[in-house]
Design a protein that fits this description.
By secondary structure, the chain is an alpha/beta fold. It is about 20% helix and about 25% strand. It has a single domain, classed as Vaccinia Virus protein VP39 (Rossmann fold, 3-Layer(aba) Sandwich). The chain has 5 helices and 9 strands, in the order ββααββαββαβαββ. The N and C termini lie far apart (about 55 Å).
Length: about 230
Amino acid sequence: MQAKSDDPAEKSGESDAIPTGDRWVDPGQELRYSEDTQDQAYRSGAYEVIESLDFSARIAVQAGYVVHRQARSVLDVGCGTGELLKYLGPDIHYVGMDISPTAIEAAKKRYAGRPNTDFDAANFREWQSPRDTYDCIVWGGIGRTWTRGGRKGDKRDWLEILLSLNAYLAANGVMVIEATKDHLPKLSKLIENDYAVIAGCDVDCLVNDHRAVRSTRVIEPRSIKHQLGGGDG
């Protein structure tokens, strides 16, 4: 059997998922629940599904909102291998950051010739942006990884990140966020005092164990105070 490549950019996109009755179990799924195991998750192929046809609608929805807003600059938080760039024109200034060096290395190789593009491997809470502001900030896949405690972490960690992102929003800038439909009510309750939802839709990708409906929302800060803890809620 041919050994699988450790580079996500060189993989076929086929999953190692194991059929169990009417559900598919991804052997790398647990790795996605912790910051400490994110790079291992990419190296194991646990995120290959994001590059598949099944998930293309999910990414296209996020990009559609960016394009409709006529954003000239985009920050992609947790960018992975840069799938969002497939749907954005070369005139858009793009910065993608992810905690996984493996994902960022693959993204840099894949988009080496694209102008106005930067990728950084870092923990967002310690990251320094190369740009002062962005017209649009995309955070796709808000989930357990983004809490400090992983699966058992405090959901308020999501709000902490969103509030810190306010500092990077340009005037009239918006965020495009995505979570599973099950997680969205928890997130919505947390952010309702600080953000207003101005658009959104749900997408059912119907793919393996990732077939949970994905909810994408376009939000904007209720307060003009772009600093951590600056909201009134």
